[in-house]
Structures are given as structure tokens and as C-alpha cells.
Amino acid sequence: MQITYIIKKSRRRSIAISVLPDKRVLVKAPYGTPERMVQEFLITKKTWITNQIEKQTREVQNAESLGLLSDDEIKQIKKKARKIFPERVEYWAKKIGVTYGRISIRLQTSRWGSCAQNGNLNFNCLLVIMPSEVLDSVVVHELCHRKYMNHSKDFYAEIDKVFPEYKRCKQWLKENGGIYMKRVVK
Ligand SMILES: [Zn+2]
Known about the structure:
By secondary structure, this protein is of the alpha/beta class. It contains 6 helices and 6 strands, in the order E-E-E-H-H-H-E-E-E-H-H-H. It has a 3-stranded mixed sheet with strand order 1-3-2. The chain has a 3-stranded mixed sheet with strand order 4-6-5, covered by helices on one side. The radius of gyration is 19 Å and the shape is globular. The two termini are about 25 Å apart. The structure holds zinc ion. The site of zinc ion (ZN) has 3 residues, from loops.
């Protein structure tokens, strides 16, 4: 299979690759990396790349069969998200025993949520069209960052304590999340 790639050079120490939605491979490499080295790296990762491209193709097909989201549908989803997230955050913050800052809702095609140092939270509105326990799992994840600003064992133990279904939800997101993101036409 022919692999198309683009190189982005920066002040990093090692080469990292990812497959873009258009199936091109994005190569992030340190300044001064010779093209030949990039190509050799790609050859060693060929199986991984092929699998990723197949996964992307499957996700696009699944997204199309579920239906792409119209501007109007996205507007409704955002409206629902602005109501639901503050409620779920309030509920879980009390259970976990943490405070939080502002909540922002965005339509994103790369992440599900984030928690800033100052406690401001950010959530992907697409979560409201998924099973409600999946939405809760993301809320709990971000709120547990108010106790641990990392992904350490202690962090996951904290999640497990309040939300034992976490692993199952995370797996669901891993399998289906990409499909939902591809329902958004860019
Ligand atoms: Zn996290």
C-alpha cells in the first residue's frame, strides 16, 4: 500500500506518527531529521499505519450509516449539553468532594474533555448523544483531575472509587467515539 505522509518538524526529541482523517500520515519529527530516516521509520510502522487507516475507513462508514449531523442538529446538541453538563458536574463534584471553575461546551473532533489548572472544565457536546454513563465517565475523569493533575495510579483509583463502570465506558468511547466525531462534517 502506498503511504502518503506530511512532515512537521519541531523542537521535539523523537519521531511520532498519527493517521489524519484523510488517511495521510502526519509525521512529527525533530529539526534536522533526514527524509530517509523518516521513511525507514514509516516502514517499521507499516502494520500499525495500515490498521489505523482501516480503522478510519470503518469509522467513516459507520458514521455515514448513523447519519451525518446537520448544523441544526448540532445546535440542538449544544443546547442540550449546556443544560446537562452543569447538572452532572454539580452532582459528581459533590460526590468526589472537589470544586471547579467555569464549564465550557465545545464541538470538538479530537477530545472529550479537559480540566485546566484553575479548575475550568471543557466538554465535547457530542457526549450528550451517547449513553448517559459515558458522559458521566468523562465528567468524573475531569473532576478527578481536581485531585490529581495527572494520569497516575492514584488518579484512576479515585475514579474507580466513585465510578466503578469507568473502564467499560472508556472502552465504549474507544470503540465508538471516533464514529461520533466523524459524524461532524468539517
Ligand atoms: Zn485526563
